[in-house]
Amino acid sequence: MLTRRDTLLGGLCALAFPHIEAALAAQLSYALSAREVAPGTYVVIGKREYFTMANGGDIVNVAFIDTKDGAVVIDTGSSKRYGLALRQLVERTTGKDIVRVYNTHHHPDHFLGNQAFDPGVIASTEQVTKNISSEGEMLAENLYRLLGDWMRGTHAVTPGVVVADGEEKFGDHRFELIELKGHTSSDLIILDKSTGILFAGDLAFLDRAATTPHASLSDWQESLVALSQVPHKLLIPGHGEPDSEERAINQTRDYLSWLSKTLEQALNNGLDMTEAMSVPIPERFASVALAREELERSVAHLYPGLEDRLLPYIGQGESQAL
Question: How many percent of the chain have pLDDT more than 90?
């Protein structure tokens, strides 16, 4: 985060060299473009990368639907700046006001663009709303450390509308809302019954390794079974290409199953966290972006809990009894 001294010096440089200010603004510009995947349904495909200064946090899939009542947006990106660029794209493409914004879960790349939208139209589940309220500012601060000035002015905005399992109708589109869990404590998926498009959030990844900072792998696997049973023509994963062949669900299930078994085996073999981070990646995940990096992060996220579950503490009295 910029200090007051940095801000003052930046302001003086901008006054003295206005062309520098313009160049800096251009460098911090998101070149968002929308792909139409069905009539009036658009997806902005994020990069299959981790947060970097080079990508500015443009790593997530967001979507919007042009309905007769107005535009419906699904997720808002990782910063205020991203959210503003997304809103401009939505309004320019549809020519309509935004009547609903859904946050699928509380990871920062999915909701920190909320500032660009009216909180009164932003909706998510009760638990996602609580998670954003309690953890949102901390998550924003973490991204400031990773993305610097891309995050300028960003803070967490909590959804103003709480939704539960059921339907919402906008124009000729009926959206079925389903709350699942596993990637986080609450993961909202949205099925557009009018087009058969299923917006899966981060319950599904495709050709990009799944992230696990708030994950319960067993709950996640159960949710993937439920997800596979939702009739759909096209699935939009949180990260990766739109999928009409069940690849995202199947690949995510396979990856999580391997991850769970690998971490348990590493622990049972007496490997410490550093050694567990270095286990081989299967050939079938060779084309999955960030497989090694996310394994390392998953060890940090999940190994302590596995140790508590699989290697229970034995007190002094119990040790003597043995």
Answer: 87
Question: Residue 7 class from Cβ within 10 Å (0-12 exposed, 13-18 middle, 19+ buried)?
Answer: exposed
pTM metric for this prediction: 0.89
Tell me the domains of the chain and their CATH numbers.
21-244 (3.60.15.10)
Residues 86 and 279: their CA atoms lie apart, in Å, by: 40
DSSP annotation of 183:
S
Rounded Cα gap, residues 263 and 257, in angstroms: 10
Tokens of 234: 């096209």
Nearest to 175 by CA among 165, 185, 187: 165
The yes-or-no verdict on residue 316 having pLDDT over 60 is: no
In degrees and rounded to multiples of 5, residue 202 shows phi and psi of -90, 15
Nearest to 188 by CA among 78, 248, 101: 101
Contact residues for 108 (Cβ-Cβ < 8 A; gap 6+): 78, 136, 139, 140, 142, 143
CB 242 within 8 A of CB 236: yes
For all residues of the chain together, what is the average pLDDT? Answer: 92
- Taking 70 as the threshold, does the pLDDT of residue 14 lie above it? no
